[in-house]
Design brief:
Strand order of the largest sheet: 2-1-3-4-5
Distance between the termini: 7 Å
Bound molecules: magnesium ion
Shape: globular
Largest sheet: 5 strands, parallel
Oligomer: single chain
CATH topology: Rossmann fold
Structural class: alpha/beta
């Protein structure tokens, strides 16, 4: 199973990446939304994306809006992982097309619970 972690923090990419690898995912990483789009384009096997909100070049919300313009990516599950905790922000991300929302800081258990809601393990 292929997953993509998009975050401008290398430390967060490593942390999230380790959790996903422990769950059996093969993990790609990107440092901002535009790089994330390029990675998605290059790897059609990616079915799960964990994306930060606040990043340079292209932020997480713009990334989600771009992905949801393309029907080829309808099956891609997107989890927004962010410090943005206001309910309006959560609603904004979900209405843009995020499937789940995880607030930083999070425990591995929280992330695993959210992923199981998405049935991200089945493929
Ligand atoms: Mg960030």
């Amino acid at each position: 199973m292929e997953a993509l972690v998009i975050d401008d923090s290398r430390a967060v990419r490593m942390l999230v990446g380790r959790i996903l690898r422990d769950l059996g995912f093969h993990v790609s990483e990107a440092g901002h939304g535009r790089e994330g789009l390029e990675t998605l384009r290059a790897n059609p096997e990616i079915r799960l994306v964990l994306v930060d909100w606040n990043m340079p070049v292209m932020d997480g919300l713009q990334f989600i809006q771009e992905v949801r313009k393309h029907r080829a990516w309808d099956a891609v599950r997107i989890v927004m992982v962010t410090t943005e905790t206001e309910s309006e922000r959560v609603e904004q991300a979900i209405s843009a097309g995020a499937n789940e929302y995880v607030m930083k800081p999070f425990t591995p258990e929280v992330l695993v619970a959210k992923l199981s809601l998405l049935e991200a393990f089945e493929d």
